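Blinded run. Sample ID left blank on purpose so nobody reads anything into the name before looking at the predicted structure. Input follows.
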Amino acid sequence: MSETMLQRSDGNSFATGRARYRDRESDQSEATAKIYIRVIPRRLPGPIFAQLDTGAPWSVFDPEVSREFADTEVLDEEIALQTRFGSRTGRLARIALTLPAEEGEELTVQATVFLCDDWPEGKNFLGYSGLIEKIRFALDPEQNLFYFGG
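Blinded prediction complete.
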């Protein structure tokens, strides 16, 4: 590793992996900068970008990605979720989600995600409940670096 990962005050590692993030969607549809992190939801052949959203109650993926979880055990009956795209109905499920590292170690967590058939295409969000609350993370906006650990 060319640089030291972040350390906690007790000397243990705060972050075990690091990767660059994007601050714009590839289609430039957002007017302001956001944080887009590479993730690999289970069964996908490679990474996708998802917006880190600490205000989102659950992680949500576009329908094409969500179809890969069709046989996943559902945790709840249908629930409603209020979003910037309006009210959506779906179910919660648990999936393995990997944060790939460009340096250090990748991290795989069991994430709770909201499965919704009518979610807008291309809109992937990493929400607080069931995912972000399970990891430590830090940002270096000067270099667009995302540090993470379990």
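Unblinding after everyone has recorded impressions. The helical segments are 63-66.
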